[in-house]
Write a structure and sequence with these properties.
CATH architecture of one domain: Orthogonal Bundle
Largest sheet: 3 strands, antiparallel
CATH class of one domain: Mainly Alpha
CATH topology of one domain: Arc Repressor Mutant, subunit A
Strand order of the largest sheet: 1-3-2
Number of strands: 3
Order of helices and strands: HEHHEEH
Number of helices: 4
Helix content: 40-55%
Structural class: mainly alpha
Length: about 100
């Protein structure tokens, strides 16, 4: 058996003019913000089942039924299954937010 040679990783340095570096930094910040917004939009567009929604809100089955009966939170019913968008639950919570004094 021959000896294994451990290769050290090499570091390559690149020099850029300051203006180019600033432009790249700005572009990266914009991309980071776009990814954050897109992730947030995708999360808010997720459909979740009624049982999970009720648990997230911390309400009883009767209260949850009342929310649906009174159209307080938008929902979709497919057969016996109820679905709500996570964003609608977030909006409901935000609309009922009570600030401290």
């Amino acid at each position: 058996m021959g000896k294994e040679i451990m290769m050290q990783p090499t570091t390559t340095m690149v020099m850029l003019p300051q203006t180019e570096w600033e432009g790249m930094k700005s572009d990266l910040q914009e991309l980071k913000e776009l990814v954050r917004v897109k992730s947030s939009e995708e999360l808010n567009a997720q459909w979740i089942e009624s049982t999970e929604a009720r648990k997230l809100l911390g309400v009883s089955q009767k209260t949850w039924q009342g929310y649906r009966d009174n159209r307080i939170i938008p929902f979709v019913q497919v057969g016996r299954k109820i679905y709500v968008k996570r964003g609608d639950l977030n909006k409901f919570m935000q609309d009922h937010y009570i600030n401290s004094k």
